[in-house]
Write a structure and sequence with these properties.
463 residues; alpha+beta; Beta-Lactamase; five-stranded antiparallel β-sheet; rod-shaped; single chain
Length: 463
């Protein structure tokens, strides 16, 4: 059952319950008013009949004849008259067997009148005094007209009740349909979005209500999905493309070794070549894994309190483990840092920051003839600035705009082997930590990569 139908049905059931209570109360009050009004009329008729019998001093047979004639036209009350000894002295009809019981009750209570009902007939016992004598009159009648009216009223209420429920259900269904129509439109739009058109977005309504918030939430989710899907697709494409060359070379080298090698030296040469290709594939896989981690959703990355200089020291140790010929110098440019060590406090991900520092220092050493990198750290105006300076081959001006693109390699590809991933990783890690990355390079004179972080901004955005 769809929401529109279920909502309309629930609304109709709830309203039906309320209307039923209302209709029952109206019917109950109407029936009570009919009974009260009929009892009053019955009392008037009994009093009138009593006065006619006692005051007119008319023959009993003549009175009964007139009563029968009027009863057909006016629905007169039937009365039975008793004296103070409870002896019947006049009656229109055969007295009920219960008359003596209610007559005794009337005498015991001392009231002027009592009422009771048996089936459809209403009874009333009245104390009547005439010429200093007490008489008791029991009258009864059936409210034919009132009961007919109340029965018709009951039918009208039932018919009106049923029609009202049907109308309420229809109105509720229409109301629910148009209320939920924006949701149906959203469902239709979502069905049209697949992995082939993840760039498509939902139409945002003008009214800033819950539907607007839902649409914005869906669009935000699609943005994250598109980014994740593109990263995944790019990662898969990259792996399939970049791994094909080293693996093909490795397989070819082993096949040639199997077919052509004869001496031990030949096998050693083939093994060395294969090992070199395997190391290249391993380095490529590590770089791609680091890029994948740097491309995670920021909300899924853990941030901790750390010291930036300690992360840099860890990166230097990791670099020396990779190549002992590299040289790193660290210069602290601010004396304030020596006075207050908290100037280098930061909130970030130590693993990613170490990868960024390691890549920048490795590039500086790799593309410098002296394999030397000078690192400057400065804490000033609540900002941490780290510069990685080398005197290497530099970067051409036309390459500087594209150097941070994934797999892009400029003129340096003729100088040293690489995969074009490192600087893309550095840029992404810097963005994750709300930092800024600057490049200043002149061909043949060296390059400066500058990282600038604001601890206050990082604490606010990441905590």
């Amino acid at each position: 059952m769809k929401i529109a139908t279920r909502t309309a049905l629930n609304y109709a059931i709830l309203t039906a319950g309320i209307l039923f209570v209302f209709a029952y109360v109206v019917y109950f009050i109407s029936e009570k008013n009919r009974q009260d009004e009929f009892i009053d009329r019955l009392g008037y008729k009994i009093t009138w009949r009593s006065e006619f019998i006692f005051d007119a001093d008319t023959d009993s047979l003549k009175i009964m004849e007139l009563h029968k004639r009027n009863k057909k036209l006016l629905n007169e009350a039937d009365i039975s008259v008793y004296n103070s000894q409870k002896q019947l002295i006049f009656t229109d009809i055969r007295p009920s067997s219960k008359n003596q019981y209610y007559l005794g009750k009337l005498i015991r209570t001392g009231k002027n009148r009592i009422t009771w009902q048996r089936k459809e007939r209403q009874y009333m016992g009245v104390k009547y005094k005439f010429e200093n004598k007490t008489y008791y009159i029991i009258g009864s009648a059936i409210d034919v007209t009132g009961m007919a009216h109340i029965a018709e009223f009951k039918k009208d209420i039932i018919v009106t009740y049923i029609i009202s429920i049907l109308i309420i259900f229809i109105i509720g269904f229409i109301f629910s349909y148009y209320t939920l129509k924006p949701l149906k439109d959203i469902i239709i739009q979502i069905r049209d979005i697949s992995e082939h058109n993840l760039n498509k977005r939902l139409v945002v309504p003008k009214a800033k209500d819950e539907i607007y918030e839902l649409t914005e939430t869906f669009n935000s989710t699609f943005n994250r999905l598109e980014k994740s899907f593109n990263n995944h697709r790019q990662f898969v494409t990259t792996i399939s493309h970049e791994f094909r060359t080293p693996l093909s070379i490795l397989i070819t080298e082993l096949e040639l070794a199997k077919e052509l090698n004869v001496t031990v030296e030949d096998y050693k040469t083939s093994i060395d070549n294969a090992l070199q290709d395997a190391n290249h594939a391993s380095q490529l896989s590590s770089a791609l894994l680091d890029f994948a981690r740097a491309s995670y959703d920021v909300s899924q990355i853990s941030f901790v309190d750390l010291r930036m200089d300690e992360i840099l020291a860890d990166a230097i140790l990791a670099l020396f483990r990779k190549n002992k010929d590299y040289k790193i110098d660290i210069n602290y440019m601010s004396n304030d840092a020596d006075k207050d060590e908290s100037n280098y406090d930061f909130r970030g991900n130590p693993y990613l920051l170490e990868i960024a520092f390691l890549n920048l220092m490795e590039n500086a050493c790799k593309y410098s003839s002296d394999h030397h990198c000078n690192v400057e750290m400065e804490a000033k105006n609540s900002a941490i600035t780290i510069r990685f300076i080398d005197k290497g081959i530099g970067i051409l001006e036309e390459d500087q705009e594209k150097i941070f693109d994934l797999f892009y390699r400029g003129n340096n590809k003729n100088y040293e082997k690489g995969n074009g991933i490192g600087l893309s990783i550095v840029k992404r890690i810097t963005e994750i930590h709300q930092g800024r990355l600057y490049l200043n390079s002149r061909p043949g004179m060296g390059t400066i990569f500058c990282l600038q972080f604001d601890p206050a901004l990082a604490f606010v955005t990441k905590k």
